[in-house]
Design goal:
Radius of gyration: 14 Å
Order of helices and strands: EEHEHH
Structural class: alpha+beta
Distance between the termini: 44 Å
Strand content: 25-35%
Largest sheet: 3 strands, antiparallel
Number of strands: 3
Length: 94
């Protein structure tokens, strides 16, 4: 059985704003990710939606995602952001 991941990211900073993980790749999964993003950040226009990424069934994948996504936002450097993290990019933009 496969699992699917929907991610909502900020277009300019590439920061992950919301995500959802589930058994079906459908509108409900995407809306869950969007609702989490809106709840956590009240994002502005310009979001990129990534959904339908397929993963093999793995009991540890959800725990791995929960630890990896904060890393993506605060520590992972992006060449398109001049080699700073999304969190740093947002701070510099303010």
């Amino acid at each position: 059985m496969y699992r699917y991941l929907a991610v909502v990211r900020d277009k300019s900073s590439r920061r992950v704003l919301g995500w959802a993980y589930g058994k079906k790749k459908d509108v409900a999964l995407t809306l869950e990710a969007l609702n989490r993003a809106v709840h956590s950040r009240k994002p502005r226009r310009g979001l990129i939606f990534y959904n339908g990424l397929t993963y093999q069934k793995d009991d540890g994948i959800c725990a791995a995602l929960k630890s990896y996504l904060p890393f993506c936002n605060s520590a992972r450097l992006h060449s398109s952001l001049n080699y700073v993290s999304p969190a740093t990019s947002e701070q510099l933009a303010r």
